[in-house]
Design a protein that fits this description.
Layout lengths: L6 E6 L7 H11 L3 E6 L9 H8 L10 H4 L3 H8 L2 E7 L1 H9 L5 H8 L4 E5 L3 H5 L1 H12 L3 E2 L3 E4 L5 E5 L3 H10 L10 E6 L4 E2 L5 E2 L6 H12 L3 E6 L11 E4 L3 H11 L5 E4 L6 E3 L18 E3 L3 H6 L6 E8 L3 H11 L4 E6 L10 E8 L2 E9 H16 L3
Parallel strand pairs: 1-2, 1-3, 3-4, 4-5, 8-11, 8-13, 11-12, 13-16, 16-17
Antiparallel strand pairs: 6-7, 9-10, 14-15, 17-18, 18-19
Amino acid sequence: MYLQGKHILLGVTGGIAAYKACELTRRLRDAGAIVRVVMTRAALEFVTPLSFQALSGHPVRTDLFDEQAEAGMGHIELARWADAVLVAPCSADFMARLAAGRADDLLSTLCLASDAPLAIAPAMNRQMWANAATQANRDALGARGVSIFGPASGEQACGETGEGRMLEAAELVERLSALFATGALAGRTVLISAGPTREALDPVRYLSNRSSGRMGYALAEAAREAGARVLLVSGPVALPTPRGVERIEVESAAQMFDAVMARIDEVDLFIGAAAVADYRPAAVAGQKIKKTASQLTLELERTPDILAAVAAREPRPFVVGFAAETQDLEAHARDKLSRKHLDMIAANDVSAGRGFDVEDNALEVFWADGHASLPQQSKARLARELVALIAGRMSGA
């Protein structure tokens, strides 16, 4: 399963299968997803919003013209929040409105406004499903990249038997999870460094930085979803290890250097996402430094350069670096790309509180003869886009 921590927007449309969406909500949460539910007016005739609120742990949205929510452009916020949108059940009417590009209620508007993967689970009478208009809508949606889960065949609420039943919750969860499993790095081994390092001053104090490790951990999860074997060398962070990832914990820049170099011969791709200290105290006090003088002078020395050392190896993996800049982003990033002989560098602007210890980010990605802009979004989605870009460069695409 690749749904741990994913933001899933579940749309529920009108039909007797709406009751199955309650079980689907529970199954999605059991798989680790964070679920928000949007119901159409027709869905309210079959299941109450209170049921979904209790199962999802979040308020249910039903109305596009909700003054309180729309004061902050709530529908756009929800569209950006979603890692994937699943409409289950998806009625024949809603399929038709999607195919026509309608935006006349909250759910249809969200489907148009979100760039997240969209999937539908059709549920309707067998004759409605077989109708040429419905089949044309299915083909049109499929051609636009909408994933169509089902329907299944079997006994229907109307007493007839045939195609039109919504797939069961467990299968829908599996199919939705598979949307995140791209296979772009299948057969590859990836080593990612993440988080800050701590450089000791004395037994109780250290020099460090504001890195939370979220970007590196998101990259580890995205690489795993892409089919890679993932090694994560992590500085001290308060984050759970992504499922299926081997985590190696370190504290100082020297320890991170040793951990990376000990495993680098195993890997095809190295992503240096850690905020490694550039300098460390030249001498570490054996006892706590007492507050006696009005000033304290520290002598610092350079730490080992992990990125440069990996890029200098022969043979070497594909090497991707990060650059956190506060000014002249492209100039500094391209200088680092060239000076350290990297294959690619992802640069972010950390001025004005951006980049460090926040949940979203934006990246400017550079390589020798190219550039790509990845717009501001959650670090999870940003990581998936960056991994896809890296995989394309590795394969020569």
